[in-house]
Amino acid sequence: MSLAATIQQPEGRRLEFKETMPSNSDLAKTIVAFANDAGGELFIGIQDEPRSITGIDEDKLDDIENQISNLIHDKCTPVIYPEISYIEEAGKHIIRVQIHKGSKPPYFLKNKTKETGTYTRVGSSNRLCDAAMIQDLERQGTGVSFDAELVHAKSLDEIDIADFEQFFEVKAGEPLTHQVLQKLELFNDEQGRELPTNALILLSEDRLKTQLFPNAKIECALFKGTIPGDFLDQKSFDGHIAGQADLALTFVLKHIAKGTKNYEGVYREDRWEYPIIALREVIRNAVIHRDYSLTGKDIKIAIFDDKIEITSPGKLPASVDYNEMNAFQSDVRNKVLAPVFKRLGIIEKWGNGLQLMDDDMKAYPEIALTWSEPGVQFRVTFSKLNYESQQESQQESQQELTYDLQDELDQELDKPTLYSKILTIVQAKPLSTQQISKKLGQKSISGQLGKVIAKLMDDELLEWTIPDTPKSSNQKHRITPAGKEFLEKLNQKDK
Questions:
Q1: Which CATH number does the domain housing residue 395 bear?
Q2: Strands 76-77 and 83-89: what pairing?
């Protein structure tokens, strides 16, 4: 990337700007943080806010380079080898310090202990690592992933994996035998005792999973509006992790529209309002690549009026860039779980997930995919680019609908009937026809009630909760935005 393009980027996980040479302490923290994380670039001679090239005196460049090299050698351990270069832009001189991701983490400050001097990047800042983060860095240094570590609390034959065994046989087309468990490295022998790995505990529904990994679950919520607040529906999926992604996707599909207008204004019944393949891949990746060593966090899927957010514990693997989806990137955090998911068909081909997402997104120019790292988490957001115009159109449509129903409005003002009573009853929450009948004090469902509900449906003031299956035993009626508008108009005129 050219300097001109780099300067336009915000400071972040891999990038930092300094107008002048930082203090020895700040520089050392940045260097070890870059080495412990994804690597990064530090530019000296560029002001951050407002972003501008201030430059460094040419006769000071060599002295500053030596100062940086000596400081890294004297203050940081294990050894870090920086790449230091000079850049001239518009007659001004800049020093670029590039640090590659280290192969022997954790890196820390020599004048402190490993526990008090190990830093990593969180956004654009350097964060002191806690014990769990240091342990993760130590695992990276040895090449052993967290999911491969053995659990000593129970032996293999004591773990309840009955549900996963059934799931595996259906998805993989073969029984989950002792030999298959061994081949997938889901247990290991230690001093004559067969011990499960963290991966097997996560794939089980044993009580030990709840004790060790209480947050190995997906929390899904449908919110009213565009920010967290009142939720309309929520569900927690905490069974074995191999089945969580499909259950979560089903929750999402339940709450997004199918058969919407596409960006050309053409109505297509087979088109969801969000790219389903891309959503599926993001949710699967959240399960497969999340950091299970962060036991206090769960995966969260939040559905708003204008977007869907999927947030997973753990930062994006250092070698993966969501900005390069078609580059067939692959980096495995959970080295035992990943082959299991591939065996189950949840992973199709290594490095193929981002390509599938990229292809699917091309058919949805009205949806933007963005990603961020809030704290030690990774978040992918699908946003509606034309949300505001859709809202205006919807409001106009509701106003027209209310105008068309003026006769009903006038009638209800004169004397309330079942028409407005039913709307008022279901305003609190969706109800079945039988539940509405009971709320009205009827002993049984009357023919009149059925006719009024049918008219409310025709007038688009009520809708099914399960539109694809009208005769479902779980079917209920819920009020539509137009229905709420009708009641608001009724209440305003009544006052």
A1: 1.10.10.10
A2: unpaired
Question: What is the distance, to the nearest Å, from the Cα of residue 194 to the centroid of all Cα atoms in its chain?
Answer: 35
- The rounded percent of the chain whose pLDDT value lies above 90 is 62
Question: What pLDDT digit, counting tens, does each position of 24-43 carry?
Answer: 999 999 999 999 999 999 99
Q: Quick check: helix, strand or coil at residue 70?
A: helix
Query: Are residues 271 and 260 in contact, defined by beta-carbon separation less than 8 angstroms?
Result: yes
pLDDT value at residue 337: 96
- Whether residues 228 and 330 share a domain: the answer is yes
Residues composing the chain: 495
Q: How many domains does the chain have?
A: 4
DSSP secondary structure of 110-145: TTS-HHHHBEEEETTEEEE--HHHHHHHHHHHHT--
Which tens digits make up the pLDDT trace of 110-153?
999 999 999 999 888 999 999 989 999 999 888 889 999 999 99
Domain finish residue from 141, 158, 177: 141
Distances (CA, A) of 295 to 212, 214, 249, 298, 377: 8, 7, 23, 8, 13
- Cα of 10 vs its chain's centroid, Å: 21
The low-confidence residues of the chain, meaning pLDDT below 70, are 1, 259-270, 318-331, 349-351, 389-407, 409-410, 493-495
**Same domain? 71 vs 112:** yes
Which CATH number covers residue 8?
Answer: 3.30.950.30
CA distance 292 to 299: 10
Contacts of 179 (CB under 8 A, 6+ apart): none
Note whether 309 and 381 are within 8 A (CB).
Answer: yes
Q: Are residues 409 and 475 both part of a single domain?
A: yes
pLDDT at 327 (0 to 100): 47
DSSP 39-69: -EEEEESEETTTTEE--B-GGGHHHHHHHHH
Q: What is the pLDDT of residue 484?
A: 86
**Which domain range does residue 169 map to?**
146-212
Residues 379 and 239 in one domain: yes
The torsion of the CA quartet 410, 412, 415, 418, rounded to 10 degrees, works out to: 150
Alpha helical stretches, state H, 153-205: 162-172, 178-183, 198-203
Query: What local confidence, expressed as pLDDT, does residue 486 receive?
Result: 83
Here the tokens at position 187 are 């247990």
